[in-house]
Every structure is written in structure tokens, then in C-alpha cells.
Batch of 3 targets.
Target 1
Amino acid sequence: MFDIPLDLDVAVARLRDEGRDREADDVIESLEWIVGDEPLHRLNQAALQQFVWFELPYKWLGGLARQRRVVRSLARFFMVTGLSRYVAVCMDPFTNDQLEAFASGSARAAFQRFERRHLASGVVPVDVDGFAWGTVMGEREFEAYWQAAMTCEIADAASAEVSNASVVTGPRSAHERAAEATRITLWRPQPDRFEQSLLDEIELERLTRWLDDGQVGLVRTRTQILGGVANQLLSPVLAPRGVAGVMAPIRWLGSIVAASGGGIRLTPGGALPRAVVQEGADRFGVRVGWTPYPAASVPQRSAQVPGLDALVALGGRSGFWTVRSGMLVARPATSARFPAVAAGFIPKGGFDREAWPLFLALLLDGTWRSGDARRIVGVAISEIGRFGRVGVPIEPDQVTASWERLLVVARMVGAVDLRVRESRLSNAGRSLARAALRSLATAPAEK
């Protein structure tokens, strides 16, 4: 990694001088596959492992004999250039086991073995608190990933030196070292890029992709709606004034779940039990869709207070609790925090995942009458064509139902101002909407 000649021709000339032309050809073809158009100093152990443990046996033609020859040629090349770490990867018995496993036809099992060993090696960038790598990467994210891989390798090599010296310092596990190296790479300011970090650039790249949505042609309305709030999503959103009010219902139900030990036993239909429903209605009143008056009966089930069902779903998406064997149980090592609520505010899939960001953007952009907001969102989703033929109007009832579901959860956490007739975000709600949209826009892309 540190002393490979920058020019491929210079590097392989050492092999040709020894009459190893076929090995030299193998090396050229392999390294061009691994580093592409980049210079050889961009080679790193993670990329080599990915090649010899997965890409070579799975994607290359020529059979097992040729694959073994390529690995031997690479090992010889790394011996010549003094890269003992890379020689060790090539000569590792696991490498030959992978070649044989793929050749035998058990590709799925071989890939799973590759992933386990690869991720445990300490030289592969990992997800860290506040950032996850996408399975689909943009140009800047791809660049950052391999920069992080090089930092991980340096940290791993340094740890080996420290271990040999019998000195214990810093993170000890391979995962901890990789996590620290990943954080350093992503958060470090870049002087040649106006002190922007790679994380800043990745988030901007993801935001741009999300605004565009990979669509062409008719999708003007969605772009116009989201473009109106794009500048509000450029920076991280801090917890707002009034955050205690936003978090109060989550923390109330979370405290009941935690105090119950094994969790709350749900009804056969998966709803909260009567005692919890009554306490929630008493505590949060209009927020949960319950307005007490002298002749009102006490609510008997959660369907009578729709905000509670919305609260259960929101807390599940935010990672605070889960349903297991008919019980609502707390997830370990989680606490109710504003960023998690923002990240879980928008559903993971379905019609609401398309509609709610557009509704929130309209609410952030100003006060919208319900009918106007529903009409413009209906136009935007019709243009996209995910829930019908492109350009064919979506059923108004579908849009209306989604709008009403959004208002239920927004009221539950105090995100809309309940003092005014028209739907309007509260101050805390504006922060929550911005944080929710930013979390969605900068989330890792998946296949």
C-alpha cells in the first residue's frame, strides 16, 4: 500500500525481468480490475480481499486452475514489491478454500463466508453512529468508501505494530479500529475543499439524488415541491425548543414498556390494552384524538383514540420498541431521542412514504389549505406513476387517507398547531419536519 510503484508498467517490469511474462500478464489484468483507472497507490487490502475471495472466483472465467494461477501471480508480485500483508492474503488457506467453494457451485454459502471473514478483518469501512454506507453509492460516496478502507488498513497495521511491542493502547477490537478509522475519514475537514468533510459531500450527493429521484419526463411537480425546501435540508437539524412536548408521548409509553419488565401484553388484534388506552387519553386528550366532555364515555380500545396506534407505529419505526409474541417490548440499549423520532417519522414503504414527504415540504413552505395540499400531492404522485400508470390521476380518496394519517401522528407529537383551523406546523413541528426530510434524503441508497 505504501511502496508500490505508481506506474503499472514499472511494477510488472520486475517480473518480466525474471522471465515471468505470464505472471506479469495476470498481475496487469488483476490490478486493472481491482483499481481501474486509479494509480497503484490506491490499492488496499479490502479491495484485494474482495477480489481474491469473491470477484475472482465468482466473476472470472477460466476455471479453478486459472484462478489459482492468478492468485499465485499476485502473491509473487507482492513478494517482489515487499508487501507482506498482501502476500499473506493471497497465501491464506481461506483464499484457496473460497476458490474451491465457488468452483463447486455453492456460491451463496461461499459469498456468506466471504462477507463474514471480510467484515471481521478490520480493514473494511463499517457503519458508524450517524452514518451508514449504501449498497448503491454515488461517486463521492464510492470515493469516500475506498479512502476509509485505506485508513482502516493503516490503523490495522499500526495496531499490529503496537501489539508486537506489547503496548496496549486505543481501541482493541478490529471492529472498533475500523469504526474509528471510518469516523476519522468521514468527519475530517478537507482543506482543499473549503474545510468540507467527506460526510458533507456524501450527504449533499444523496440529497441531490433524492430531489431528482432518478425520474425524467413529467415529474415536475415533485421536484418543485421538494425544491422549495431543499435549502432547509442542507444542514443537520438540532433538537428544537419544545422538544420535550414532541417527545412526551414516546417517553410516556416507553416508560410503561420499560416498567413492565417483559413488555406490555397486546390485545389479540395487536392493540394496546384498555388501561394504557385510558391513561393515554387522559394524559394527551386531543393529541390522541380524544376530547373529553361531561357525557363522554371512557375509551375502551385504542381504535377510539387513533393517535395511540400511530404512537405505537412511530416508536417501532424509531427503534424504541418492537412487537414480539404478542408483547410490546423495549429494544435493548435504546433511548427516546429526537433524531431517532425524526428518522422514524416517515413510514418505511407504501403510499405514505411517497406522500408524507411532499405534504411535509408543503407545510414547511407555508400554510396550505387541506384541499390544496391534497390536490398538488395527488398530481405529483400521479406524475411519478409508482401507484398506477404514469400521468393517470391517483384516486383522491387515497391521497386524503394518507393526509389524515399524517395529521394523526403529527398531532400525537405536537408537530401541528392545534390552536388554528388550518393545518400549520408548530415551531417544534417545523424542526421535526426538516429533520425527517433530511434523514430521508440523506439515507443510504439501497438496491
Note: The first helix runs from residue 8 to 17.
Target 2
Amino acid sequence: MNRPVLLTTLFVSLALNVFGVGAFMGARLNGDRPEASPMGPVPERRDRSPVNAAVRTLSPEAQAAWRTQTPAFLATHDPGLRDSRRIVQGAIQGLGADPFDATVATSNLVRARDMEHRNRLAMDARLVAFAASLSPQDRAKFAEALARPRQARNPRQAAAPAMD
């Protein structure tokens, strides 16, 4: 192959790669905008948290109010949640220890569940106080969204019986 043809081929290849990478990155960065999708409407975002999904149904002002309160709530209650998860994990890992102390494992699990319960009560109180601050229309939307059953991740989970 002669030199001019080789240089032209390399230049064309470089240009195609640059445009290809640019198109890929543009599609990725523009993917958050529903109106930019050529495939039609973007499916509704599924939250793992029913509270976050419910907040998203509210007016922008109410959403901003929730987000404003969140850092203070997390600063107070997130360390307790992390501690309870750490205690549960330690107790579960300790089930295989030899010698095994069932009393200590049970005590640790009870302590962790008590911590979780206190944090859930705090979240319930936060939800009620926040709902009290909403307009009647937003409060109705919030209640409806919170009452909506969570979607199962796969159909088999939806059909599985609850274990009490």
C-alpha cells in the first residue's frame, strides 16, 4: 500500500472513531431527557424506596421541601441504621463460630432490630409531619403513592407467599 492511501485510510478511521465515540457519549448523556428518546416515551423510573417514588409525585415545591429536610434527618438517623446493619451482619457471620453463643447472637439481633425499629418510628413521624405541611392535593397524591404496593423485581417474587 502506498503512503497517501495509508494516511487517508488512517484519517478516515480516526474520524469515524471520533464520531462514533461522540455519538455514543451524546446518547448516554442525553439519555436522562425523556423528550430526546427516538424510541418513544421513557419508562417510568423505578425507585427502590417507596418514599422516594411518592415524593416524586408531588409538586416541585414539596419535593424541594422534602430534600431540604433530608440531610438533617440522615445526619441524625443514618448512623443508627448503619450500626444496626453492622450488628446484624456480625451476628449472622458469628453463627458459624465455634464455640457458638446463642445468647449473645440473639441479644445482638434483638439490639439491632430495636435500633431499626426506632429509626422506622422516626421515619414514620417524619412522613406524618411532612404530610401535615402539604397542600390537600399534594397530601392526597402522597398518600396514594405511599399506599401503592411495591412492584416485585421478578414475577416469581410476586407469586411467592409471605413468610411470617
Note: The radius of gyration is 26 Å.
Target 3
Amino acid sequence: MASFFKKIKIFIPIILIVLGACTKWKDKTAQDLGLKNKYCNNPAAINYNYGFPGIADSSVCIFPSSPFVGRYKFQDSIFGLSDQMVLGDMHTFEIVSVDTVRFKIVNYCSSAQDIFFKANRYYKADVDSGIALGAWLFCRELDTLRGQLEYNSWDSSLTINWTVNSDTNVTTHKGKAYKY
């Protein structure tokens, strides 16, 4: 037992020296790099981390549905089963954002039916499933719509490629819609 106390007497000064030398860590103040640009720090945004390094600011984020929003004019080109083009009606419609990835087209048809789409970060949007997988009711209750939109950032236009199944036939609607 006496040897045990002798060993403790030797280690106590060493332990006190080690504990006395330790101090609590304090973070150094951050170095000001003079960065003023803002960048989006939200992974769901199209422009995630664009402009990094800088100051994180969610107000500069662009989400997948954002580029599509606006008013458009569209000269419809309709292709039937024979692949012969028929010039369709001139449509004016508006795209309204529902959330960060979904939007709806309002006032495309004379009916009150809105058409919902789901966009991705690559400026493409597919018809959001409404009544069946990848289909939505179109201008008449007997019509279903399948297809997609693509936003063209260089001229703020939409490339439209839709297939409409109706009670009488299947038609494809293609063309460009321009913001106005």
C-alpha cells in the first residue's frame, strides 16, 4: 500500500502540470476576404452554389418552376395519325408557379381546366400525373394530355411537344410559345 502512495505522489505533480498547461480553445476571428457576391446555398435550386465563395443568400435562388412563369403566345401545329401538319389555333396562356418544382398552365383552353407540370433543374417539365400515369385532362373531358415543355433560356421561349388522346383520334401538338 505504501508503494501505491509513493507512485501517486510522483504522478500528482505531473498531472497538475499537464492540466495547468491546458486552456479552453477559442476560435480565431474569421478573416475578412472582402467577398460581396451572393450565392444560392439551397441544393433544390437550379443555381445551387453558383457564385461560391461569397455570401449565402436564398433570395438569389432560382427553382425549377421559376423560369417557366409568365405569359405566352403559341401558334399550335397539330399532327394527326397521317403525320400531316394542320395549323391550329393561336393560344395565349399564363404559367403560374404552384411550388418550387410544380407549375400550372391557366387559360389555355376555354374550359376552366388547368394543366399541371413538374419541372426539373434542366429546364424541362413533364405533365404532372393527374388522372393516370403521366397524363392530365385537356380541353375536353374526353381528352387526355401527355408530353413535355422545355424552357429555352436564350430566347425565353417554350418548346411544346404534347400528345392528346381523344375519343376520336390521337394528335401531336408541337411548336414554340413565346413570352410577351
Note: The two ends are 95 Å apart (CA to CA).
